[in-house]
Design a protein that fits this description.
four-stranded parallel beta sheet, four-stranded antiparallel beta sheet, single chain, Isoleucyl-tRNA Synthetase, Domain 1, Gyrase A, domain 2, 21 helices, globular, alpha/beta
Amino acid sequence: MKTILDLITEEVKQAFVEKGFDEKYGKVTISNRPDLCQYQCNGAMAAAKQYKTAPIKIAQPVVELLQANNKFKEVTAIMPGFINITVSDKFLADYINQMSNEENFGCEKEQNPKTIIIDYGGPNIAKPLHVGHMRSAIIGESIKRIMRFMGNKVIGDAHLGDWGTQMGLVIAGLRQRKPDLVYFDESYEGEYPKEAPFTITELEEIYPAASAYSKENPEFREEAKQITYLLQNGHRGYTAIWNHILEVSISDLKKVYGKLNVSFDLWKKESDAQPYIPDMVQYFKDNNYARISEGALVVDVKEENDTKEIPPCMILKSDGSALYNTTDLATIVERMKLFDPDRIIYIVDKRQELYFETVFRCARKTKLVNEDTELNFIGFGTMNGKDGKPFKTREGGVMRLEHLIKNVTDEVYRKIVENRNMNDEEAKEVAEKVGVAALKYGDLSNQVAKDYIFDVDRFTSFEGNTGPYILYTIVRIKSILSKYEEIGKKLPDNPVILPASSTYEQELMLELTKFNEALLSAYNETAPNRICQYIYDLANAFNGFYHDTKIIAEEDDKLQSSWIALISLVLNILLTCIDLIGMEAPERM
């Protein structure tokens, strides 16, 4: 289904052509002066130069032709040559009715669906998720949902950090605490226990303690390095502990991510890429992609037209050990082999841009990816406290993500209990959904690359551009539809939405027509904030209509049925949109 802008543009372009002008001047946009008109065309201004005449002399004959078109209520030429357009109420209602009957409300999906991998997790094993993990998770989840909605095959990968010295430190710390565990008995040949010898709480205590201890004790640090080496070379006991760490950590990660409505299709790990490294390194050497620089193996990625310094991509350190670059390149090799994606997207802190630029250039230069494979870096800004600095706890530490979720949920619960008549169990259930919505909408309504201030009072407000306001609007519509059924009425199978009978109804219809543009914009720009802005505008338009219209008290059944059909469409579109940003609506608030 074409967007309403495309349909109007087609009519205007045809009018330009019929009057002897190039159709390119007939492009129509949403009016920047809604008090004057709904849509506008400024093409006559640009055409004046080509046709060497005043813009108004181009606009006027085009307008005269369009005035006879029954799709338009009013078309005027305004000096020096603007064309102002207001569509007919019937054309607008017909478009809305078509939307309500089309799959996905007429949103046209990707004509050539792609296989897309989104890397949007990045948590480390044996460590709790903290607030720094939140943006990657919820931005990535939303982009995944938007791209799936548009018809693509999308694979979300958590990409766990489970390799390197941190694993050695955890195992060394565990041996320090529990030296008699069977995993440390080199002579043991039996089966290792299926149950982990630690809980997630103990595991989360071990790493920071071991890390701090290693800084003061060089011999312990060396022990951890040796354990890391033996683990990476298949030590039986250490491998068994490592598997326990993975199992316990992933179980906890799924629980916390689940609270945010975030899920992954793959729980791939850095270690999964390790088997690909030796062949990849040899391939770089055999094809003269890599050179030795001060003992290290590097690939030059600087290009002639670079205006800034781009460092080489280091593949192996002088001691022969791998780096993050190596693992990330090997992960690309693995992804190409297993999934042959058309596009790989990384959702990472924007400060990592140069690093990923280096890795992407290396992957392209060495032909690890196909020529048409897209490698995209989407860098996000930081979530800051009211002091403008990265968000911290009151004690100055990094806050655990589950604690942040609880703090926001508790604040919503407090507001619900203060202002609503609801039993405690229902209030807690509602607070969980509304709290997550407050957190996610507060984040996603900002442009991805921008830093923003985390303000729990503003985010949890039931008024203004917030998650709770959006959910409250949805609950209000549900309540009206329930009351309609309570008075013994129900919508016919094929309800018809009548032309608008008020300015508020017309404005609501116009907002509905913008759904397709909003989705396409969010999709093309990988920008969830476009969805948030649309949701807010649609919610505002509905609330204006609601306050102006006595829907349940209306005595004209045909008109009332039309309004019920209209707000049902609003509800379905709002529910679709909040799902795309990972929010859920309660039945009441």
